[in-house]
Amino acid sequence: MTDRLHIVGGGMAGSEAAWQAAEMGVDVVIHEMRPKVGTFAHQTGNLAEMVCSNSFRSDDDEQNAVGLLHWEMRAAGGLIMASADTHRLPAGGALAVDRDPFAETVTNRLRRHPRISVTEEEVTDLPQEGQWIFATGPLTSPALGEAIRQQTGSDALAFFDAIAPIVYADTIDMSRAWLQSRYDKGETEEERTAYINCPMNRDQYEAFIDALLAADKTEFHEGETATYFDGCLPIEVMAERGRETLRHGPMKPVGLTNPHQPEVKPYAVVQLRRDNALGTLYNIVGFQTKMKYGAQTSVFRMIPGLEEAGFARLGGIHRNTFINSPTLLDEQMRLRSRPNIRFAGQITGVEGYVESAAMGLLAGRFAAAGILGHSLPEVPQDSAMGALIHHITGGADAKTFQPMNVNFGLFRPVDGLKGGRRGRKDRYKAYTDRAKAAWSDWLAQS
């Protein structure tokens, strides 16, 4: 009953795991190497720092799998979702947050919890004793990565993740750009005007694509190989796949009308989403990049409205490491070869802030129950949590295992429902109704 739970890594997964375990009555130590040992992407020593986008994506819990995951985490008293709701920013139907106050809130609540302590140190091996959760995320330190590789007996899998740039709002030319959410989505005027839109005609778009393709890119170190996660492709990689790819992706012009020229339909549109509550910072949506800094400023200033843009942060790229969870982890996220160790978050092969925090939530509850001498029922596969953990702990093909966002493709079909696009609305509502019932029942049993 006096055993402590040790959590390595204070990102989304580690923070949520610590909160859940402490709320169940277990003493927790968070081992976070920052700020003593920095990383390429992090800027502060705060826990749960958001290093890429500031969006938790769709908040629609009836028609979207990630929105359903939001719902389940809220129902479980999740710290990450509570903090995100506190610092929510207008973003149409998405849940975007003011990243710095969000991380500060998570950090303060964890540090003030009577059962949680935080130690700033780097853990470089896998301990033989005690109960541990490793939630070190995409930027696991080289020393710990090597210890994991030695224990698992295989090379860690990896992919590259990219970061989008952030622009100072007062440097955007609003005589060319305008405020509007796609299809005017949102219940309030603030939500319906949550994005800044920069239009391009065909010639401007073609010139932009030429510049992207010709720009100097970051070169990888010798011997460094990895793939890209499709949900976070650098824009120049998308452009290399076809000149129209961006226009049908992050630069699609549908659902938008330029009030400066309402009779002219833009050929492409670049969207920027508010990045802080003050509205002084905007990130360029979907514009992750591996271009060198000098190339970024010149290429991005080709965008109408951004000719004089000032950048609070330029984009970048980093290596994201994850383990082959289907072969290495059991159904409670324990390392099969070392059951005193669990893994959680992006290192398990889930992708996204919400998915990482969700796996931290489950790992924290599993570990706490074990320490307290309890047993938890199996997570229902028909919930979003269950669909995701089932995928990473056995549902996925280990030979082709790659990072995965939560999506309805991971859910078991509902009998009697029409397939295809026409039946999608009813099908998704059936998925979410079934998931909410299953998850609520699991929480009651737990």
Automatic annotation (TrEMBL):
It comes from Ruegeria marisflavi. FAD binds at residues 9-14. It catalyses: uridine(54) in tRNA + (6R)-5,10-methylene-5,6,7,8-tetrahydrofolate + NADPH + H(+) = 5-methyluridine(54) in tRNA + (6S)-5,6,7,8-tetrahydrofolate + NADP(+); uridine(54) in tRNA + (6R)-5,10-methylene-5,6,7,8-tetrahydrofolate + NADH + H(+) = 5-methyluridine(54) in tRNA + (6S)-5,6,7,8-tetrahydrofolate + NAD(+). Keywords: Cytoplasm, FAD, Flavoprotein, Methyltransferase, NAD, NADP, Transferase, tRNA processing. It is found in: Cytoplasm. This is Methylenetetrahydrofolate--tRNA-(uracil-5-)-methyltransferase TrmFO. Residues 5-373 form the MnmG N-terminal domain. Pfam families: GIDA. Belongs to the MnmG family. TrmFO subfamily. Its EC number is 2.1.1.74. Its cofactor is FAD. Catalyzes the folate-dependent formation of 5-methyl-uridine at position 54 (M-5-U54) in all tRNAs. NAD-binding protein involved in the addition of a carboxymethylaminomethyl (cmnm) group at the wobble position (U34) of certain tRNAs, forming tRNA-cmnm(5)s(2)U34.
